[in-house]
């Protein structure tokens, strides 16, 4: 950031903490960059943040210290919040942003409050069916809120809540499975089971699949495996596949998720909203095992929405055994028609214009608030922004009673 008056408006996107915040944030960042804005992504000090943003192009990356609210760590949380808030104010003082977007989590709260001090247009995105505590708190301070699931709208105290879906990066789209498998060193003509536990892995999912491997190897002759483990379990999982002579690609973390999803025939996954958005974009049948300790059990609600629409199979972790896993997997693995029906159902959850819709709303409000400082006529505002000229955005008024039982869009 510099003191020189810039030619383009600046948008700060606070998206640190988990892949579920980072990847949708980067999708919006890329769209804003293509529209002509300068963009800075504010991330945490976590390793996942550093790895996930390594390939970001044309987006400045800056870190903020922050501590999430967990249990009763109130003093530690307040101290971390204050440090992050002061640092955000110092950085914004060097070059004030005209817009700040929070992607969720308490790491995104300090930049929103720092942005208020500089008159920025303020936004948040909530990707889950049940909004997190941070977003429920922040919603009253922002000008507009965006949601991935329509049921989240009535849980946010904001007069302008828009159902945009959850953004995915542009490389997430159906691709030739054989080509994707070849990029990963797999056979092009053999089906693939993808196992993933979210951006940081999932020990319980890893252990379930490890226990099920003898059964799966006997039932899925000729299948290949991609398993993304997180750091803790990588070696143990790799050893388990090798012991059975299975053709498997095992990584702790993989930064080309579009290839992993594109190569897969079926996925076993947690039910974070960002992962679901990517699965939907790739039209991939999946078995969803929600994280039972997720705040407000939001992953279960996410998975239930997909399951009730025929877009995935819901398998609860406390009931998951190797036999139950196979029972859920067998019809999808054995019946191409079942996979096709599920692929069609899951594709209905994909909102391909989510990133450009959000970017367009951000640009429109910034133009209204800061148009006297910048030539917004030089920027490309997406046509589907739901702006004055019309568009595709589904605005959800606060006085509209929404159904809590979700159906496919």
Q: What about the largest sheet?
A: 8 strands, mixed
Helix content: 25-40%
Counting structural domains, the number is 2
CATH class of the largest domain: Alpha Beta
Uncertain stretches: 386-409
Number of strands: 14
Order of helices and strands: EHEHEHEHEHEEHEHEHEHEHEHEHHHE
- CATH fold-level label of the largest domain: Rossmann fold
Radius of gyration: 21 Å
Mean pLDDT: 88
Our estimate of the beta-strand percent is 5-15%
- The name of the CATH superfamily of the largest domain reads Glycogen Phosphorylase B
Shape: globular
Number of helices: 14
CATH architecture grouping of the largest domain: 3-Layer(aba) Sandwich
Q: Structural class, judged by helices and strands?
A: alpha/beta
Overview of this structure, please?
The chain has 2 domains: 205 residues, Rossmann fold, CATH 3.40.50; 171 residues, Rossmann fold, CATH 3.40.50.2000. It is built from 14 helices and 14 strands. The strands form 2 sheets. An 8-stranded mixed beta sheet has the order 3-2-1-4-5-6-7-14, sandwiched between helices. The protein has a 6-stranded parallel beta sheet with strand order 10-9-8-11-12-13, with helices on both faces. α10 links the parallel β11 and β12. α1 packs across α14 and α6 crosses α9. The longest helix is centred in the N-terminal third of the chain and has 21 residues. The chain is globular.
